[in-house]
Structures are given as C-alpha cells and as structure tokens.
Model the fold of this input.
Amino acid sequence: MKKTIKLLTAASAIALLFSVTETKAQDSQAWRLGVGLNGGVGTKDPYGFVLGGDVKLQKDLAGPVSLTLASGFNHFFVKDEFKDTQNDLPYNVVPLKAGVKAFLSKNFYVSGELGAGFGTDDWSETSFVWSPSIGWAFTNGLDIGVKYEDYTKYDPTKQVALRIAYGFNLSK
Done:
C-alpha cells in the first residue's frame, strides 16, 4: 500500500511537471548553479534533525521546464532518547539525483528528483532516493523551497526539509 501511494504520488508529480505549458520565469536557456543549505526533520524514529548541503546544476529548457543534477551531503541526527541503544547509529549519505523543475508562475515552481543515496557509514549501503519539492525562486538568485526526501533502503531515513539556496547564472 505504501509503495503504491509513493508511486502514484511520483507519477502524478511527473505528469504535472510535463503538463505545464506557460513560461514566465525563464526567458532563456541558461545554465545555473545553486548552492544550498538544508535543514530538516526526520519523519521516523530514531532520527530527529537532519542537516545537509547541496550543489545543484540546472539547465533551463525552452519554456518553463528545467533539468537538474544535484549532489551534496546529509547527516541524520539520532534523537536523545535513542542514544546508547541499538538504534543510535547516525546516518550519513551523499545523494546524487537528476530531476525536472517546472515553473507554474513567474517564481513558483514544483520539482521532482530521482537518484541514489550513497551511505558513508560502514553499515550503510546505496539506496534509491526520490524527492518532490515546491519552492519560490526570487529574481536576485535566492531560492527557498520545501522538500520531502525518502531513502528507500532504510525505512527511517525520510525527511521534510527547508532548502535555502543561492543560484548563479553561469550563462552570463
């Protein structure tokens, strides 16, 4: 049931991204580079706070759609009540994701990314990761968004995060 809901949500988000036809936010086919800081909350025990950073390369296409390639680092902190138990292992992961970003208005966008999360701890393995998000891209380069991120290999490694980034136009 959970997998069906996840697949339907991902498919709906992708369909929405490809159905957008009006462009307002982008009037060129620019390359952009964004550097962001992510602060999140784990959705399942034993993880509480999640802190990370990322670098995102974006290629604007004709119209309101862009392609993205992102990587970074996330650290899942263990909640205090789970420290000194068998569940007290923090989770460190390097995600590598490709995605699509579509502007629904001049500044408001929806995005979806898929990829792999490479665990950096001895006990962790590579995991599939998917991440839908919404956000607001300001004309001065500031980008603020909210995302849900799910590393499917390990059930408790899901988060809802706020991403604050600054984007550089590489085509100027």
Q: What stands out?
A: The chain is about 10% helix and 60% strand. The two ends are 48 Å apart (CA to CA). The CA atoms of residues 52 and 74 lie 4 Å apart. Helices lie at 2-19.
